[in-house]
Structures are given as C-alpha cells and as structure tokens.
Prior knowledge:
Elements: H1 16-21, H2 27-69, H3 73-97
Helix pairs in contact: 2-3
Amino acid sequence: xxxxxxxxxxxxxxxxxxxxxxxxxxxxxxxxxxxxxxxxxxxxxxxxxxxxxxxxxxxxxxxxxxxxxxxxxxxxxxxxxxxxxxxxxxxxxxxxxxxxxxxxx
Length: 105
C-alpha cells in the first residue's frame, strides 16, 4: 500500500511563494489562508482515497462471494482478510477527516 499521501507534495499553493504573492493581506491572514487551502486539499484527497477503497472493498466482497460459491476456501480466506484491511484503512481515513487518530493496525 502506498503511503504517498503522507509525503509533502511540491508545487502546492501553500508554499512560501504563494503566501508572499497574496496582496493586501496581513502575514497572519496569508498563513491562515494557506493553511485552509492545504486542509481543503487534504480533505479532498482523503475523500478520493475513501472512494477508491470503497470500490476495492466491493470488488473484494464480490470475489470472496464467488470463491465461497466455488468452494475455494484458501482464496476466500485471503479475500476476506484483504477486505478487512481495506475496511480498517477506510475507518482510519474517516477518523482522519473527523480529527481523530487511530493506529494503522
């Protein structure tokens, strides 16, 4: 699983150059504006990740159902474990949105 969302991205509007380029605002207002833009961007990214993980969970659920019907127990167990990992990741991302912290266990 990629932890790309944890690494800072370059070229963000929250860089120092963006803060300096905003005319007519005090330094505190500029920093606040940049912080809000970054938070909005992070929220949008997190919501996109939740959407993708929800689709993955649905695919895993369908695959596990098919494996169960075909009596493929090892594959069914693997798919169920994968689905549980996806569900935990979704829960962690939703907790992140709500300002809570959970460990990625």
